[in-house]
Amino acid sequence: MRYELYYWSGIQGRGEYVRLALEDAGVDYVDVARERGDNAIMPFLRGRQEGALPFAPPFLKAGRLVIAQTVTILAYLGPHLGLVPGGQSAEIYAQQLQMTISDFIVEIHDTHHPIAASQYYEEQRTAARKRSQVFREERLPKFLAYFEQVIERGNGRQALSRHSYVDLSLFQLISGLDYAFPNAMRRMQKRIPRLRALAERVAERPNIAAYLASPRRIPFNEEGIFRHYAELDPTR
Amino acid sequence: MRYELYYWSGIQGRGEYVRLALEDAGVDYVDVARERGDNAIMPFLRGRQEGALPFAPPFLKAGRLVIAQTVTILAYLGPHLGLVPGGQSAEIYAQQLQMTISDFIVEIHDTHHPIAASQYYEEQRTAARKRSQVFREERLPKFLAYFEQVIERGNGRQALSRHSYVDLSLFQLISGLDYAFPNAMRRMQKRIPRLRALAERVAERPNIAAYLASPRRIPFNEEGIFRHYAELDPTR
């Protein structure tokens, strides 16, 4: 089966977590909006297609199934792509971790858009500075310490005992945070050795290395979730 | 099996979506922190227990399984409690809808806490007023119109063709929004007839009606997700 991924063509965004899974598994897929333009997304959002109604991209077409929401797409793809350890308990844990990654992504996005996604960054800079400070001092350490602890506990057990889509998403998180908050991430460096090792391991996987070096990997930019604004990431 | 729900004892919060499912199904469960105090939650968060590590409550103990994240808990409970239509396609759609409800809940919470969950409302009132205006004018209509359309399409098809945990969560959303934003919800009234009918139907289900009238239902208050601050919900 040829999977069809629908996501905005100009950013990594939430679509990237799905792209990484499809690329890592080496399966046949088409990144629809990058081939045919973002307009290809609209009929689904307007309810002109059969099946599930997505609230927003990304969504995946797998045969007749339309699946929206990154966590749900990955929970579906995991067993099909061999990207989750076998057994109900591991599948549930992987999904729970992906949900927490999803919560973290919202908080990362809201550092630069704390008031309205529909308004420019420049219109909400004062609030963005405040929210980013709380993010750097409280939320970033809390989330990263949590995932570090999960890896520490997971060795040889349940989730993360084998390569999974959660690993791919954690790689994406670390990459994006290094881009958006290089100073804050430098200060976290010694506290996340297992996350660093995981991210390096993922980057060296042949299919992922090939993908990252290809034009299919959209560079980080200031339209996506991970944005670098120097004033939101001071050196101290 | 006796389910154990772990959630803060003083608020409805995210735990309420799980409580409604357990109550509607009429199964045996214990609301642990309400019986033994919030301290009963801590060993799990500190990693002193076997199994999955929760990032935050709510989490559910089902035999030896520890399941965190509301969406994941409901995806697990749905088939066990008869609270999702049969078949993979319906289960996926229900989970996708619950994910979107989850996204909506974050936005509802952030109307009163746009800067930091760890700070008082009074410390972020200026940003809260701005974010709430965008919420009332853009986000609230967009999410409610989406769910209204889902119900319209769903009749006789896939998800929402039968009673499910998604119905219970939509009931909770409508109830909470009526509490927090009565004026904004009055202005939405004519545009959500199907959501209104669904919420009334859920409230009349015998187990739900009994639950709502019982002391187990914690009243809405200004510690939870749905808070009523008059300045965030002007009459016009």
From TrEMBL, chains A, B:
Residue ranges constituting the GST N-terminal domain according to the UniProt record: 1-85
InterPro entries found in the cross-reference section: Glutathione-S-Trfase_C-like (IPR010987), Glutathione-S-Trfase_C_sf (IPR036282), Glutathione_S-Trfase_N (IPR004045), GST_C (IPR004046), GST_superfamily (IPR050213), Thioredoxin-like_sf (IPR036249)
Gene3D superfamilies, sorted: 1.20.1050.10, Glutaredoxin (3.40.30.10)
Ranges where the GST C-terminal domain occurs: 91-232
PANTHER family, per database record: GLUTATHIONE S-TRANSFERASE
Stated name of the protein: Glutathione S-transferase
